[in-house]
Amino acid sequence: MLCVNVELKERRYPIHIGAGLLSDPSVYPLKRGDNVMIVTNPTVAQYYLTPVTATLQSIGCRVAQVQLPDGEKYKTLDSLNLIFTALLQANHGRDTTIIALGGGVIGDVAGYAAASYQRGVRFIQIPTTLLAQVDSSVGGKTAVNHELGKNMIGAFYQPCAVIIDTLTLNSLPKREINAGLAEVIKYGAILDYDFFVWLERQMDALIALDQAALQQCIARCCQLKADVVARDETEQGDRALLNLGHTFGHAIETHLGYGNWLHGEAVAVGCMMAAALSEMQGDLSCAEAARLEKLLARANLPTVSPDSMRPEDYLPHMLRDKKVLAGKLRLVLLKSLGQAYVATDTDQASVLAAIRRCTQTD
Question: What is the pTM (predicted TM-score) of this model?
């Protein structure tokens, strides 16, 4: 088992990474008599609700559960209210612990419920998708979507532990694995050139779900994110770098309707749009942009805009993004592979030109 710590002083917490951890009582920061509410969905529940419940009961916890509908389109205030109703009906108080058992949607909604219920209760992240394991379960971003924008309603609220059982990836569709690899590649592109090179060498092993490669990969991603979060928990500075491709990608998700493209698929295209803009700004070299595109393609990810979107469709969504300040886009761009920066003065004409470079043509 590997362990990465998120260093937030009195709110320091561990990220446990290994095979078979769902059934390991030692990684759960719980004790006999604790009340637990597991938040999951039917897809995940059929595989993992029983073993997690059995482990919690072996500790001596009192366990309840609520299942939300499965899918990004259900990352809503209505789903949030389902959790509150279940907690209230079961008479859960401030001493309860919410466990998010599932992918990024479950983690975000359950985390926001934990931040809000009785003004805050403990919660544990048990991410079951690669994307959630390397990104959304770490760092305390919790939110639900609004029809006008992704993740617009939420809070920064840290878990007390993250438990990553890499065997859960065996039950994922290949498309979900690929989507997670978009966030993995992002880390190398923005923060760690050596990790990017490692990914170029290990991509086939990761796609094949080789356990050793997966655990090393997830641990490195978690460490990179933990270091950034420790410096900038609420995204006032460095943490914004983690959003490479996301402003473009969120526009795709919102425009197409949540869930039609997976988050990682949209981020992959967004990374290429950011790379195109970086190249146009005179930073990223053509050869480096080509390496990024090749690695994304090896992960079976899209690298061009959906054919149903025009370049002009992006800006209205992008200008509603959380990262817009005083009406100006803030975009994460690349100086080179492994080195990113936040651009605050990019004109809209240049952004449109970069989008056009990544638009499908007949």
Answer: 0.93
